TrEMBL record:
<feature type="signal peptide">
    <location>
        <begin position="1"/>
        <end position="23"/>
    </location>
</feature>
<feature type="domain" description="Pyrrolo-quinoline quinone repeat">
    <location>
        <begin position="417"/>
        <end position="503"/>
    </location>
</feature>
<dbReference type="InterPro" id="IPR002372">
    <property type="entry name" value="PQQ_rpt_dom"/>
</dbReference>
<dbReference type="InterPro" id="IPR011047">
    <property type="entry name" value="Quinoprotein_ADH-like_sf"/>
</dbReference>
<keyword id="KW-0732">Signal</keyword>
<dbReference type="InterPro" id="IPR015943">
    <property type="entry name" value="WD40/YVTN_repeat-like_dom_sf"/>
</dbReference>
<protein>
    <submittedName>
        <fullName>Outer membrane biogenesis protein BamB</fullName>
    </submittedName>
</protein>
<dbReference type="Pfam" id="PF13360">
    <property type="entry name" value="PQQ_2"/>
</dbReference>
<dbReference type="InterPro" id="IPR018391">
    <property type="entry name" value="PQQ_b-propeller_rpt"/>
</dbReference>
Length: 564
């Protein structure tokens, strides 16, 4: 018989062996948000650090002092507010931010820009910058000091991203280092090696689309073959009531080589609640290819990526992710939400949470698991009116069902809801505790080995069974969270607004994921201070952990000596 210490050692060895990956299986590139078009942040890596020190920074110059740094390979200066998530492809790392870093001589830090930066993957040295000058319309379309808030999509020597100006831009990943201008922009001052080499531009705001994004245009593009999928961010004006362009497209399929729009869809129409900042997902499920969008009306839409052949979308299914009696009230005071998170496809099912603009603060949330094999309206409920109780009524923006008007709800016999998590009496005590409640979320789920993780904006980190929606455990980070978990090498990483990265063991068992510290359950590997708010999501590529805080991007590697 083995004693308890021996048993723990056996468990630890088994866990280490089960998480070890062969060198040929290691994820080398993480070339789009979520790694691939199904958006599940689960790269393969070995010996990913659980301990590091970021070093010190000069408060005036921002210069890095690596004297006290540990396991930091390099650090790159970003802007002052960084929400774009890094991606790694080829010999470069790309990340969106604002212009506070002042990398270009012609654009000092006093010039407000949205910028996409490219750094050398090995050293962190600056390579080139794409600069998006602020729109003259101001904060209604292009919020001051906010930079590029999305992650780019990289394939070979081409990179596509959505600018803060309401555009898709295709750029050459080599910039002008290859001595060539790959686009038609001969007259612009972009021949310096420090500048991006733009191949083509698709402007949503121009004729014939006339998109009017709210505050910011942000979408992390994905694609398949020669097609890119884009959410245009069409939304309200500064009144937060009027929708300037209800007929403008919300979703698009675009030829990646030319920028030509292949088809578009404006389904959210007049029902857009605020803005549309979700990113699309692509998957083939049971032989049916589909692109899945989160809409600004709180609905999830799935389309055939080929469209209808006449420049229009071809809807497969749609799903209302809010209860029909929920209500939209300005400033986040209501119970109806839009979708900011990205849908994730795992084991043939779709997972997505609802949320609102972080400025709207906390509120009730919903996390859904959806069967994507249905067709038509696959919402959990249908709305009816007593004047014609046999015919479902059309969706209404503010409140889908108003009992005072004779509206009522019936279960939808065509529902594709597999499970729903909003509140759950996990401990069976008859009460719903704060830790047993799902709140609004900007973040996307991450799923590994049937275990689902998601952070909500109230700072709760939830661990659920991906098949059943049963709550395994939750942890209060005591700080707002915007990001998405990273699951790699048997560990789970999540950052928060206080600038800490919590690291758990990957497990459905809270006694394995966390450690008991005198009656308080804490992340097994602790919480590491990053020196500034972490709004982005940690990623791993080539066994290096990349984390961006508001002002700097860190490449973290076990045993690393600083390269800069």
């Amino acid at each position: 018989m083995t004693n308890s210490r021996t048993s723990l050692c056996i468990v630890a060895v088994f866990a280490a062996c089960s998480s070890f990956a062969l060198a040929e299986d290691i994820t080398q590139d993480w070339a789009q948000w979520g790694g691939d078009s199904m958006r599940n942040n689960t790269p393969v890596g070995n010996n990913i650090p659980t301990e590091w020190e970021v070093g010190d920074f000069d408060p005036e110059t921002g210069e890095w002092d690596s004297t006290e740094a540990k396991n930091i390979k390099w650090v790159a200066r970003l802007g002052s507010q960084s929400y774009g998530n890094p991606v790694v492809a080829g010999d470069k790392v790309y990340v969106g931010t604002n212009n506070n870093g002042g990398w270009l001589e012609r654009y000092p830090t006093s010039v407000d820009l949205g910028v996409l930066l490219a750094f050398d993957r090995e050293t962190g040295e600056f390579r080139w910058q794409h600069s998006s000058e602020k729109l003259k319309t101001g904060r209604v379309h292009d919020w001051p000091e906010q930079g590029i808030c999305c992650a780019p999509y990289v394939e070979g020597n081409r990179l596509w991203f959505v600018t803060s100006r309401g555009e898709v831009r295709c750029v050459d990943t080599e910039g002008f280092y290859d001595g060539e201008n790959d686009g038609p922009y001969q007259d612009e001052p972009v021949q310096s090696k420090d500048e991006a080499d733009v191949v083509w531009v698709l402007n949503f705001m121009a004729e014939p689309y006339y998109v009017s994004q709210h505050n910011m245009c942000s979408c992390s593009i994905t694609g398949v073959g020669d097609i890119l999928f884009v959410n245009t961010s069409n939304g309200l004006d500064e009144s937060h009531i009027n929708l300037p362009a209800p007929e403008a497209p919300s979703f698009m399929a675009v030829d990646k080589n030319t920028g030509k729009v292949l088809w578009s869809d404006s389904s959210p129409g007049l029902n857009i609640l605020h803005g549309q900042w979700s990113s699309p997902t692509f998957a083939e499920i049971n032989g049916q290819a589909m692109v899945i969008f989160g809409g600004g009306d709180g609905w999830v839409y799935a389309f055939d990526p080929a469209g209808d052949g006449n420049g229009n979308s071809k809807l497969l299914w749609k799903f209302d992710a809010n209860p029909k009696e929920s209500e939209w009230i300005l400033g986040g005071r209501g119970t109806r939400n839009n979708i900011i998170a990205t849908p994730v496809v795992y084991d043939g099912l779709v997972y997505v949470a609802v949320g609102q603009d972080p400025e709207h603060q906390e509120g009730i949330g919903h996390l859904w698991c959806i069967d994507p094999n249905g067709r038509g309206d696959v919402s959990p409920e249908l709305a009816f009116n007593s004047s014609n109780p046999s015919e479902p009524i059309s969706h209404k923006r503010i409140k889908a069902v108003d009992p005072d008007e004779g509206d009522f709800v019936r279960p939808n016999p065509n529902s594709a809801a597999v499970w729903h998590y909003s509140e759950q009496d996990a401990d069976g005590d008859g009460d719903i505790a704060y830790e047993e409640t799902m709140h609004r979320s900007c973040g996307t789920v991450t799923i590994k080995d049937g275990i689902l993780y998601i952070a909500d904006f109230s700072g709760l980190f939830h661990c659920l069974d991906a098949k059943t929606g049963k709550l395994n455990w939750s942890y209060d980070m005591l700080a707002q969270c915007w990001g998405t978990p990273l699951v790699v090498d048997g560990k789970v990483y999540i950052g928060d607004e206080d600038g800490q990265v919590a690291i758990f063991r990957h497990s459905a068992d809270p006694n394995v994921a966390m450690v008991d510290d005198g009656g308080e359950m804490l992340p097994y590997y602790g919480e590491i201070e990053m020196g500034n708010s972490v709004y982005s999501t940690p990623i791993v590529a080539g066994n290096i952990l990349y984390i961006a805080n508001r002002t700097h991007l860190f490449a973290i590697e076990q045993g690393a000596e600083p390269a800069n």
